[in-house]
Task: structure prediction
Amino acid sequence: MELDCRVVIPSCHTGDEWQPAMISDFLTDFESTYGSPGCGYDLLGYSRGGRGVYLFAVFEPARVRTLAAISARDMPELIHQIRRFPVFIVHGDKDQRTPVERIQGMYESLRAVGCNCKLTIIDGDHFIIAKVLQDGSIFNWQKNAV
Result:
């Protein structure tokens, strides 16, 4: 896969969760070397990372341009706070961790509050990350979402 941008991939150990303040501190250090993107970051997260994307957007909205969540749990409590961002949700139709119906509900709720939101349901379970990244359309969407 070839990308024409810098990619930062934070990772959690089993049982850990993204901490928005830690990501913020990391980005501050990163920006001291590489500069800050003028228009914000395109965030993409898988599973707990998808929840982390939503949480970071609430914590540091000025640093965010787009949100993409793959196989992430629905977070209806954040809908009003993330609605201002373009959101791309990708989920497997056989995901046992978060049923696809809950994700469809989150998508519909985001659309109902005016969010520029896209939902793609693909054949697969929770572990669809390789298929999604290999396809590459999620990156094209992020480039053109705003």
Notes: The beta strands are 41-46, 64-70, 87-92, 117-122.
